[in-house]
Design brief:
406 residues; alpha/beta; Rossmann fold; 5-stranded parallel sheet; globular
């Protein structure tokens, strides 16, 4: 029998936490009422803007969101990306509150000020399913006051997914092994997990959303969302994605590069074990793990790879895989269902499971020429489907189908 205990310090802290939460709710209720009373100003601001109102992208500071924003500009839209913090130093977002101050109080007040600006000057707001500008009192759940104000302002809301905001434990496990929960060390911490919480949260978001979009394994959790947008584009004109030369390193070690942000979700231990097995067999192979490295430096390391390993548990590729493909690198990844992919028949991803990693690598050790061919096809695949223009065209069609004006 497992017995959970609570220390005296934790017990004494509970009332204090509840008091802070109650105070925050009271403050936010007052701020919500204030913004609601000021909403008539929206008519004046929108009239001044004369059709040049903003399309605002906000929420979790995921780089793909900033790239989506730039892609929308290709449609002639006045788009801007806003975040209150970032996971690492980057200039990708148009407005990053944390550049001004790291103070949590400043960020909190700024989020309300920015929300007021959005309510007045925006025609459309893009968020992930777990929130926009305001922090929520419950992890992975959208702040209901922000959603209320969106609806009150008749602001068109487009909701996207990134994974953790919709992934539930029961449904994930039902997909079969391996899966994102297989080696999770803290259920409820990394994803929303609870099916009941997820269902209620999605219902709140869906109530005012004109469009909801998911892709890959995220489609399992949002079966009625739009699944064909594939919204992880790359700005291939950036120097970091410069088209690589065609080089076959036949006499060197086979270099495998892996960049896990969370090893337990990527199946990193299976890759490490496979490489260790091959090294003991006498094969010339090395593994380079890229962790806690600035993006610009990481991209330089990716360029040195012969093959890149994304993950072997989740069942869908990540943004990292697309970046590696843009560099002309073959990518190993576990794809659960071909329908998760765009143009699956011509996708050059190398599908692996924990049990097949070693055999797959063993085959490439024998024939390096295969890697060069796959790498070339990888770059072509990304150019064809994940450039800014390709995503912008998909977004345009989605807007048309949803009756959303540019």
């Amino acid at each position: 029998m497992r017995i959970s205990t609570v220390s005296p310090s934790e017990v004494s802290a509970l009332p204090e936490i509840e008091n802070v939460r109650s105070l925050r709710v009271a403050i936010e209720s007052v701020l919500t009422l204030l913004l609601a009373l000021l909403l008539p100003l929206r008519v004046v601001v929108q009239a001044v803007l004369r059709g040049a109102a903003y399309s605002v992208w906000c929420g979790q500071p995921i780089i793909a969101m900033a790239v989506n924003c730039r892609a929308e500009r290709l449609l002639g839209v006045r788009s801007v990306s806003i975040v209150t913090h970032t996971y690492f130093v980057t200039q990708a977002f148009d407005c990053d509150v944390s550049r001004i101050s790291k103070s949590r109080v400043f960020r909190y007040l700024s989020s309300w000020a920015l929300l007021f600006w959005v309510l007045l000057a925006a025609k459309r707001v893009h968020t992930y399913c777990d929130g926009g500008l305001l922090a929520s009192t419950t992890a992975f759940e959208f702040n209901p006051r922000e959603l209320f104000l969106y609806r009150l302002a008749c602001l068109k809301h487009v909701a996207w997914t990134y994974g953790a905001d919709v992934r539930t434990q029961a449904l994930t496990k039902a997909l079969g092994e391996p899966n994102c929960c297989t080696e999770c060390d803290a259920p409820g911490k990394h994803c929303i997990c609870s099916a009941d919480k997820a269902e209620k949260n999605i219902a709140r978001v869906k109530r005012g959303a004109v469009l909801m979009a998911s892709m890959g394994d995220m489609n399992e959790y949002l079966p009625l969302a739009r699944h064909d947008l594939h919204f992880w584009p790359l700005d291939l004109d950036l120097p970091i994605y410069e088209k690589p030369p065609e080089v076959i390193r036949s006499n060197d070690l086979l270099r495998v590069v892996h960049a896990p942000n969370h090893r337990q979700f990527k199946g990193s231990r299976h890759l490490i074990a496979a490489v260790d097995t091959l090294q003991k067999e006498g094969h010339a192979i090395e593994l380079v793990l890229v962790e806690r490295v600035p993006n610009a430096e990481a991209m330089k390391i990716y360029r040195t790879a012969d093959i890149v390993f994304d993950q072997c548990l989740v069942g869908f590729h990540g943004y990292f895989a697309l970046e590696a493909m843009a560099l002309g690198k073959p990518v190993m990844v576990f794809i659960r269902k071909p329908e998760y992919l765009i143009d699956a028949a011509n996708c050059p991803l190398i599908n692996v499971t924990p049990e097949t990693i070693a055999d797959s690598l063993r085959g490439f050790l024998v024939n390096r020429a295969d890697l060069a061919l796959i790498g070339k096809k990888s770059r072509q695949y990304v150019e064809r489907h994940y450039g800014l223009a390709a995503f912008a065209e998909r977004l345009k069609h989605a807007y048309e189908d949803a009756g959303v004006k540019l």
